[in-house]
Every structure is written in C-alpha cells, then in structure tokens.
Design a protein that fits this description.
Layout lengths: L4 E10 L9 E6 L7 E10 L2 H7 L2 E10 L4 E8 L11 E4 L12 E5 L3 E3 L6 H5 L2 H14 L13 E5 L4 H12 L3 E5 L3 H9 L4 E3 L5 H7 L5 E6 L3 H11 E9 L18 E4 L4 H4 L7 H14 L7 E5 L4 H12 L6 E5 L2
Parallel strand pairs: 9-10, 9-12, 10-11, 12-13, 13-14, 15-16
Antiparallel strand pairs: 1-2, 1-4, 3-5, 3-7, 3-16, 5-6, 6-8
Helix pairs in contact: 3-4, 3-9
C-alpha cells in the first residue's frame, strides 16, 4: 500500500521572510498516531513570535523539511491506542510541542494531555487564535506568579502587564481582570492602547517612558505583580523600581544581556520565567494541566467571560499567506492574533 501524503508548509533553510524559500509548500507523509497521540485534521492555525524566531536566519540546513506552527484548531481524525480523553470527531484546540513537528500541515500529531475541547461558541479560526497565548498567560499569572483566581483574594492589588496589546497581553489583561486585580497595561500607540482598554485594562502607561512617575499620576506608588511580555532587559530597571516589596515579576522574553538580580534583593522580590512549552518538552508529571486549563478556558469563552483575540484571517493555509503573516509579526506592530484557515 502506498504511503498517504498530505499538504504542509515547511522549510529546509533558515532564511529572511522575503526570501522565496523561507517557507515553501510541500507534501509530506501523513502521520499515524501511537500511544496517547491524537491525529488531528487541521482546520485553522495562528502565528506567534516563536514561529518567526525559529524561522529566522541561522547556519543550518534540514535534510527533511521542518514544519512550524504552534496553534491549531481542528477535528480529531484518529486516536492512539492509549487515548482516553478524546474520540474521533471531537473538535479540539491546542498549541502542540516545540520539540515535535508543528501544526502547519493538513494533519498533525499531538499528545492528548496538552489538548483542550474547542469552545463551542467559536469557529475554528477564532479558536486557533487562543491556545499558545492563553496557556502562556494562564501559567504566567496563576502558576508562576501564584495569583489566586478568587477576586476576593486580590482586592486592592495591582498588576502591570508590559506589552498589554500583543497576543499574550490580550489574554493576560482579560484573565487578570477576571481575577479581580487592578490592571495597568503598557502600550505606545493609540491603537494598541485602545485595544488593551477594550479587553479590560483599567489604565495604560507608555513603556518608552519611566514607569514610576506615570504610575504616580494614576495613583499607584507600586504594584504587587509585573508580567513582562516585551524586552526583559530594556524594562529591568523600571520593573525593579516599580515592584512592591515581596512582589513578584514573571517574564516570557529571553534576554540578550545578563540581568542584575541584585536590584531585586532589598525588596525580597521573586523573579520567575514562564515558557508554555516546558511541560510538553520535559513530559512533566503535571502535563495534563494544559488539557485542564484549555477546557476551563473553553467554558469561560462560552460563558462570555473571555473573548478571542483574533484580528485578521488569511485564507488558505499556504506558504504565501504564512510569509505574509510572519512579515506582519516581524514588524512588531500587531494587535491581537493573525490566523490562517483552510488548506
């Protein structure tokens, strides 16, 4: 029997996005699920900064095409023999694993423990905008910063979200508001400030200016929590000055320079990283927490508590449209999420 093939978008060389071969349309073998893997028929995908970081120029060539893409909404086509959480026909959404082939393909294998049931109130494109950013925001706020989901516990407390209008920021603002925190977002353009306010930010300050005087203007001497979603080293001194004694800072952005942790010492401040791929990369015992949080997020979306942050849909899913999406992301001026639908 001949091997079944499927459409995908991949790369052999790591190139600038404008290069004709930075992303190419390819045909690759359709995979078969084993163990706890689901085979998902991909209906929509979205792009994230991680896609552009992985694709950017480097001295390496792949013998087999590398497929990117870490946000998928689709339908379970087939389940591995050890699956217990899903069955064929189930509509799902998830972000996948950075150490496995990505989801920019007609069919995709993913461990069911990091997959959630798609919100019933959303179409596939709207759902595909959510997983990676929502998992990052959820883990950052509730797992890493240890914020309670009970609004009564957060009365009088504030969080500063640096980069409030981006993909993760758009979800973090909503979740922090849901948890009862006063939400201060940073933005530098009128359009992005308006977007963050529409999602529930109480105040907006400019991340190109000193934080302390801007916070004082809106009645805050300090904040209990900071969630940094943009240029950790650039904002490091500002964060150290702004954080309350015994406060907590979480960042998702790797640094090009060493950070002076001593700046946090006198205030006994906690600094913690968040990477939503940690659980899937290391197969941690609590990997199933991503399944649970995506299901909880689905319920919140269907109850109207959280809204999708989709801002643009490109059709179909192909190399030309993915290049366009990567170029928009690399401009650094996006609000919300860019989604591609249908092969």
């Amino acid at each position: 029997m001949s091997e079944q093939m499927m459409k995908a978008v991949g790369l052999y060389n790591y190139l600038p996005v404008e290069h004709p071969e930075s992303l190419i349309d390819i045909k690759i073998p359709k995979p078969v699920p084993a163990g706890r893997d689901l085979l998902v028929s991909v209906k929509a995908i979205s792009v994230n900064p991680v896609d552009t970081k992985v694709r950017k120029p480097k001295e390496r060539t792949e013998e087999r095409p590398r497929v990117l893409g870490w946000d998928v909404a689709g339908v379970v086509e087939q389940t591995g023999p050890d699956c217990t959480l899903f069955k064929p026909g189930d509509e799902v959404y998830y972000a996948g694993s950075i150490v496995r082939p990505g989801g920019n393909s007609e069919f995709h294998l993913v461990d069911e423990r990091i997959v959630g049931t798609k919100p019933a109130s959303l179409d596939f494109a709207q759902a595909a905008a959510l997983p990676l950013t929502a998992i990052t925001a959820w883990e950052g706020l509730f797992d890493r910063l240890g914020i309670s989901k009970n609004p009564a516990d957060n009365e009088g407390k504030a969080i500063l979200i640096i980069g409030a209008a981006g993909g993760v920021g758009s979800i973090a603002v909503q979740l922090a508001r849901y948890a009862g925190l006063a939400v201060i977002g940073t933005a530098s353009r009128g359009e992005s400030a308006e977007w963050a306010r529409s999602l529930g930010a109480d105040h907006i300050i400019n991340h190109y200016q000193d934080f302390v005087p801007q916070l004082k203007e809106i009645g805050y001497d300090q904040v209990e929590y900071i969630f940094c979603l943009n240029s950790t080293e650039k904002h490091w001194r500002n964060m150290a000055e702004t954080i309350a004694p015994q406060g907590k800072i979480c960042s998702i952005v790797e640094t090009d320079e060493l950070l002076d942790l001593t700046l946090l010492k006198n205030k006994s401040v906690t600094f913690v990283w968040e990477l939503m791929f940690t659980r899937s990369t290391y197969q941690t015992p609590d990997m199933i927490e991503q399944h649970k949080l995506l299901n909880e997020l689905s319920r919140m979306v269907d109850q109207g508590l959280i809204r999708t942050t989709i801002s643009e849909v490109l059709e179909p899913i192909n190399a030309a449209n993915l290049k366009k999406a990567h170029a928009i992301l690399e401009s650094g001026r996006t609000t919300g999420k860019i989604v591609l639908a249908n092969f």
